[in-house]
Structure formats: C-alpha cells, structure tokens
Amino acid sequence: MASKLSKNGAHALNFSSGVLEVAGVADSVRDSILDATERFPGTSGELALENPAALQITGLDKSFGEREVLKDLSLSVPEGAFVAVIGHSGCGKSTLLRLIAGLDEPTSGEIALDGETVSGINPQVRVMFQEARLLPWKRVIDNVALGLPRAARPRAQGVLESVGLGDRAGDWPSILSGGQRQRVALARALAGAPRFLLLDEPLGALDALTRLEMQALLESIWQEHKFTALLITHDVEEAVTLADYVVVMDEGRFIVNEPVPLPRPRDHSDPQFVEITQRLLKQVRAMKK
Amino acid sequence: MSSLTITTSEAVSPPNPPRADLHLVRGAAVTAAPLTGRGGVSLGAQNAPIGQLQGRPTPAELRRDKEKKAARTERFFAVLPWVLPVALLLIWQLSASQGWLSPRFLPAPSAVWGALADVVHSGQIWRDAGISAKRALLGLLIGGGLGFLFGVINGAIHLFDKAFDTSMQMARTIPNLALMPLMILWFGIGEETKVLLVALGTFFPLYLNTYHGIRSADNGLKEMGRIYGLSPWGLFAHVIFPGALPNILIGLRFALGTMWLTLIAAEGLAADSGIGYMTSTAREFMRTDIVLLGTLIYALLGKGADLGAKLLERTLLPWHQNFQKTARTR
Predict the structure, then answer these.
(1) Closest partner residue to B238 among A101, A126, A135, by Cβ?
(2) Domain coordinates in residue numbering, chain B
(3) Nearest CA of chain A to the CA of B146: how many Å?
(4) Res. A232: pLDDT tops 90
C-alpha cells in the first residue's frame, strides 16, 4: 500500500507543478482549485518535471461548421497517469477522445502522444467504447486477437485469462452478458499492449454491481500494465474511484481539475473521498443551467 | 403419475386450513396449493413412495418426467406440419374415387402417381427435370453471381455506387418476363432465352440485398476496426462482408423464388424440353394428371432449393442468433 501511495503522490506533485494545466478557467474556479491543492499539502510545491508529458494537448479547438465544440483546451498528462474527464452530455468530451484517438482532426491546436503529434490512427492508442463493439461473427478469442499479427495471437488467450474469461474463448459474443462483453473488449484493447487506453464511458451501460466489479478490474489492470488512461464518464464517483486527476469539462472548456491523492483501492466511505466527490458534484451541478 | 385429491370437508371449507389438515393427505401436503374452495384441490405428488421427503418426487424422477414431456412435444411438432397436406390428399383421393370430381378437372392422386410411374419408366422425367434444373442453376449462377458482384462493388466503393446504382434501380423496375418477347426475337426458343431470363430474374434480388447489406454495415464496428489497425481490405473481410452475409443469403432465397417462377413461364412459352414444356404439352392433350405432376415436381424442386439455401445459412452463419443452438454445442 505504501508504494501505491507514493506513486499517487508523485502524480499529484506533477499536477501542481504545472504539468496539468487548465486553460480558460474562471477566477472563482481557479480559487477553488487552489483551495483544493492547499487542502492536500502533499500536492503543493515547485518540483521540476521528471518526465515529459505522455499526452500533451495544446490550444486545441474543434468546430463542426459554425458550432465550436472544443475551445482552446490545454492539458498535460504524465506517463502512467489515470485521468478522468467528467461533464454533461454534449460538453465535448467524446469529441476530445476522438481527436486523441486520431479518428478526427482538430480545427487548430495540437495533440501530442509521447512528443509526437497525433495524425491518424496510432497503434499505441486503444479505445473502449460504451458498447463493447465485438464482432458477432467472431468467437471471443478471435475478437480479442483482432488486428494482431499472427505471431502475437497466443497473447490473446493470456489477456483473456487476465480479465477472467479464459474459459469463454470459444464462445460467440452473443451469449455473453453485458459485463462479460465489456471484459472481452478490455482484453481486446490490452492485447496490443497499448501505451494509451481511452475509455469512452465503457461502464455506462452496465448494472451497478457489474460496474463496481469492472472498476476494480480496470484499476488492477491499469496498475499491472502501466498504460496512460483517459476515462470519460459522467459518474463522479467512478471518476474519483479510478482517477489520479478528475477534469471537469463544460461547453468545450476545462473548468476544473481536481487531484485525487488517495491510496488505492479507494474506500468510498473515506472522508477525503466523500469530500472530493461532493466538491466535484457541486461543480457539476453548478454548471447545469 | 397420480395426483391426490383432497375431498375431506376440513380441507375445503376454511380459507386458511391448519397445516395438520393437509398432513392428512400423506405426503402431498406441504407444497400447499391455494385452496379454491370449490370442493376439491388437487396436489401433484407423483408416484411418491410413502414417507420419502414428504412424498415429493425425486429430482431424477422430475427430470425423467420432463424429458418424456419434451420428447412428446417434439414428436407432436414433427407431425403437425404434415397433418393438413395428408388430410387434403385423403379428401382429394376420396372425392375422386367417389366420382365427385371429374378426372378431367382433377384426376385422383393415384392417377397422378400412375402418370409419375409412366414418365419415370420412360425416362422422360429425368431428362426434363434435369434440363430444367440445369437451366435454373446456370441462370442463377450467371445472374446471381453478377448481382452479388455488383452489389459488393457498388456497396463498398463510392465511385461505382455513384456511377451505377441509379441505372440499376431503374432497370430493376422492369419485370424480367416483359423481356421474353424480345428474347424470343433475338434467340428463338434456344437455351439462351431461358437462361438469360432466369439470370435477369435472379440478378436483382441478389444485387439489392447484397448492396443493402454492405451499405448498412455498422459504423461503430467499422470505427472500432479502424482503431484496431485493420487495413481497408481487412475491414471489408472481417467487418463489412460478414455483417452483410445474412442479407446476401436473404437475397439468395428471393432469387431462388424468382428463378423457378421465370423458368416455369419461359419453358411454357419458348421451349421444346423441360418440365414446363412437359406440362404445357400435356395441357394440349388434356392430360390433367401430367399437368398436376409437373406442378408437383416444381414444388419439390423449389423445396429442394430452399433447403439448400437454409443449409447454406446454417453453415455460413453459425454465429447468428437463429442458429445459436447448433453454435453452442461446439
């Protein structure tokens, strides 16, 4: 537990030393972020960067015709961090994810992964969607191995086992439950050993119990594989459970970011957990008109 | 299987009888079915030996009962589809043998059977049925094959879609049989006329369904495939085409329908062999039995083609919900 703590501590330090920047923040919100960092003394300080950011977003704009969806976003995520983006539907979080995945191009600004500007699809990036998006005509194992070179196929069975579905390799996806399908989708994402995992509300359609199980699984897999994760969700508690930082988005801007310097696995009844969750909930509610 | 019936008055009258009353009826009891108050309640205790688990049937017995029931249901549903045709056949035979039906209007099934024996004996049936089947399959191969090919190309490649689809949609509104006079003018009553008509008739069902299947590929799956590194060809082979396959097979079954329809019409008007020719000649000689026989053979050939298509679906779509039973066994 102690080592996990110090790992999180390190992320938090990076955050307050300017790695995670929030652009276009209203003064009052900025104050509340300052409050937040003051409340967690371990997070303040002027440490120099140890690593360059794994994900660097600079001045990102995206418009569809007249409609501005993303407005001057900047964000910097250190390697191996888990970032959650929360916000109401239509605030632009999915658009952001599509841009990072290389499925769309920014109107202006830049996204860099490991220092390289994103242009098109990158094998280092895998995405999990709200729906599992398994191919119904391929058996579970072939879904996991999708897009892998033949030599890497034995890996597929290994990852399938690591998500607890080793014995379902020969099944058709249609006979799996919703939670099992998402686990297969997770295995498929991991099979390519990506450095970035983008999660577009992957647990949004699951029932409450399965959700909790999946959160625990995601956390342990993330700790084991050490990829950089970006989770999009509108469940504040889920964000606080999983993320090192929670970024709140409203109408295409980042308005808040909140470090979560708590030991893992997180206890939902921990007063600090409750406090952070409550503060974020308040902010999310405040932006609803 | 026996059921015990409570007839004691204690068990009938009170709305909430004390349990002791129910124990009067040995064993059947405690499952306590609600009392109807109408004079008798039957509680199902099946062949229960006295004193064993309060008389409930053992799990093994229950299972055996269930299996028996399932087997009976299965037999029932295997027989059910044939009840109506067999009944009709019997009524038909009876009406003919009683003289209620003129043989010229509708000869008895036995007479049709006799006609079948004749044509089988003379070998005419094999020749005609063989020729008809050959025309049908050749036409399907040419027309269906081209329809499939154009469906895939127009569905998958935007340029071809723009160039050809509108023309296809216009051409498809022409009934293929309307072209028969033209075909006869061009090719006489040779093989080309029949095969071409069948080809025209099978082209459009396959074209339309293939095109639709390819075009309606799931965007979410396509996006996923791109993210997971599939090349355009890989995307087609792993995502788009398998997704379109159910539609393509529906197209095939439609094509089989039009295939026989076209062939019957074409063989009746422009042929000197084949089942259609056999029946139209028989009509001229007032051989109603042979006409009926020809109709029956068409039905059998059609059914055979349909079975083939179903078998193809089973083989090609093991993942499809409709065939999950076979899929699960593996």
Answers:
(1) A135
(2) 3-57, 58-101, 109-328
(3) 25
(4) yes
Q: What is the pLDDT of residue B189?
A: 81
Count residue pairs from A and B with Cβ separation < 8 A.
Answer: 58
Using pLDDT thresholds of 50, 70 and 90, give the confidence band for residue B45: very low
CA pair distance B182, B202, nearest whole angstrom: 18
Min mean pLDDT across A128-132, A207-211, B323-327 is at B323-327
Which ranges in chain B belong to alpha helices (H)?
9-12, 19-24, 59-97, 109-122, 124-139, 145-156, 158-171, 180-187, 191-215, 219-227, 232-235, 241-269, 275-284, 288-316, 324-328
In this complex, the residue of A121, A146, A174 whose CB is nearest that of residue B319 is A174
Q: Which of the pair, B219 or A14, is modelled with greater confidence?
A: B219
Query: Distance of CA A102 to CAs A96, A122, B76, B203, Å?
Result: 10, 7, 59, 41
Locate the chain B residue with the closest alpha carbon to A121: B227
**Test the B interface: residue of A94, A150, A168, A172 with most B CBs within 10 Å:** A172
Q: What is the CATH number of domain B109-328?
A: 1.10.3720.10
Residue B269 contacts A, CB cutoff 8 Å: no
Q: Which amino acid is at A245?
A: Y
CA-nearest residue of chain A to B222? A133
The interface predicted TM-score (ipTM) is 0.78
pLDDT one-digit tens code per residue, B97-110: 888 888 888 888 88
Chain B residue nearest residue A104, CA to CA:
B223
Chain B residues with beta carbon closer than 8 angstroms to that of A181: none
The one-letter amino acid at B201: G
Confidence tier at A197 by pLDDT (50, 70, 90): very high
The reported pLDDT for the residue numbered B54 is 58
Is the minimum CB–CB distance between B44 and chain A shorter than 8 Å? no
Residue A119 has pLDDT above 50, yes or no: yes
Domains and their CATH numbers in chain A: 2-124+194-286 (3.40.50.300)
- CB–CB of A112/A54 below 8 Å? no
Judged by a CB distance cut-off of 8 A, whether residue B238 touches chain A is: yes
The answer, for B126 touching chain A at a CB cutoff of 8 Å, is no
